[in-house]
From TrEMBL:
Reactions it catalyzes: L-threonine + hydrogencarbonate + ATP = L-threonylcarbamoyladenylate + diphosphate + H2O
Residues bound to L-threonine: 36, 68, 122, 142, 182
Entry function: Required for the formation of a threonylcarbamoyl group on adenosine at position 37 (t(6)A37) in tRNAs that read codons beginning with adenine.
Protein name per the record: Threonylcarbamoyl-AMP synthase
UniProt record similarity statement: Belongs to the SUA5 family.
Keyword entries, A-Z: ATP-binding, Cytoplasm, Nucleotide-binding, Nucleotidyltransferase, Transferase, tRNA processing
SUPFAM superfamilies: YrdC/RibB (SSF55821)
Length: 344
């Protein structure tokens, strides 16, 4: 049985927080809101509890989890060493959508870190999440609260769609403010490596760290060209419909999109378009406006993916966005979800 707890995001009700915290302490699973997306949490130091996260999501065991904390001092327990740049990043961006990868201490079980000798840690900027973690008194390992490879959940309804009946508690704390996952930066390398772009931009990271290198997987398509298995190896965050991303100059993208809409309609497909301009004039079967600035697109992206599936679309043509600021995270998610990326 899954208990749904509706909690006020501004003034979390203490008795409800206690219920969720108690479940975590006893080794259960709680889906909870964060500012990025909803997380599926378990006591990070309880290997049996963490194993359940992987089973419920269908997530491969070599895919490590992020450990969520509510007190900076917890990092000292989870990490073997804390470099100066980690402290600077915590001061600047915590609580917030930034995950730090550090050398792990002995207390963190292998299942939590996917067998790696590093641990990923973050302090979420959400009152419900922070109150729950504090009350539980345990660090909370949590990936996104969706079935593996599906779009991440940005509302409790999305979580319930994927996980109702499989977890102990789903907290409903409203819509996620940012809508894409946290930025993951590895501080065990010199210079630090950006492993996943997210809620904190690369530009902001560089202001604190100076040089940051991008892991090759961040801009997926290059990897994909060598992998030669479109839509397979790196597919992630993906709706049931096939996503085709069109990137390039804005005017050219519009023209290419219109051409592709007609092409797929002729093939008898139900065609959806994800647009970033309300007056785009696309003649697709379903047109969804994701927003016209990066913050809006990030917030709506996964919701729009799920809506297309509800409406039975076969193909989603998505307008690419510029890779500045949050745009890098948006393009990363679009490309990971994509069956193919087309240059306009
Ligand atoms: P999710 O929360 O489902 O979006 O997944 C957690 C993300 O954090 C994944 O992209 C992981 O690869 C990444 N991550 C977690 N722990 C580590 C680690 N120790 N080293 C590198 N990446 C990590
Ligand atoms: Mg995920």
């Amino acid at each position: 049985m899954t208990k749904i707890l509706k909690i006020n995001r501004r003034r979390p009700e203490v008795p409800k927080i206690r219920i969720a915290a108690e479940v975590l302490r006893k080794g259960g699973l709680v889906a909870f809101p964060t500012e990025t997306v909803y997380g599926l949490g378990a006591d990070a130091l309880n290997a049996a509890a963490v194993r359940k996260i992987f089973e419920v999501k269908g997530r491969p065991f070599d895919n490590p989890l992020i450990v969520h904390i509510a007190d900076r001092k917890e990092v000292c327990r989870l990490a073997k060493e804390i470099p100066d740049n980690a402290r600077e990043l915590m001061n600047e961006f915590w609580p917030g959508p930034l995950t730090l990868v550090l050398k792990k201490s002995e207390v963190v079980p292998d299942v939590t870190t996917g067998g790696l000798d590093t641990v990923a840690v973050r302090m979420p900027d959400n009152k419900i999440a922070l109150a729950m973690i504090k009350e539980a008194g345990v660090a909370v390992a949590a990936p996104s609260a969706n079935i593996f490879s599906k779009p991440s959940p940005t509302s409790a309804a999305h979580v319930a769609h994927d996980l109702y009946g499989k977890v102990d508690v789903i907290i409903d704390g409203g819509v996620a403010r940012i809508g894409v996952e946290s930025t993951v930066v590895d501080l065990t390398t010199t210079p630090p490596t950006l492993l996943r772009p997210g809620g904190i931009s690369l530009e902001d990271l560089k202001k604190v760290l100076g040089r940051v290198v991008l892991h090759p997987a961040v801009r997926v398509e290059k990897t994909r060209i060598t992998a030669k298995s479109p839509g397979m190896k790196y597919r992630h965050y993906a709706p049931d419909a096939s996503v085709i991303v069109v990137e390039g100059r804005r005017r050219k993208v519009g023209r290419k999109m219109r051409q592709l809409v007609e092409e797929y309609k002729r093939k008898g497909k139900i065609v959806g378009v994800m647009a970033t301009n309300r007056r785009c004039g696309y003649t697709a079967d379903v047109v969804k406006f994701a927003g016209n600035d990066p913050a809006a697109v990030a917030k709506n992206l996964f919701k729009v993916f799920r809506k297309f599936d509800e409406e039975g679309v076969d193909v989603i043509l998505a307008e690419g966005v510029g890779e500045k600021g949050l745009g890098l995270a948006i393009m990363n998610r679009l490309k990971k979800a994509a069956y193919k990326v087309v240059k306009a």
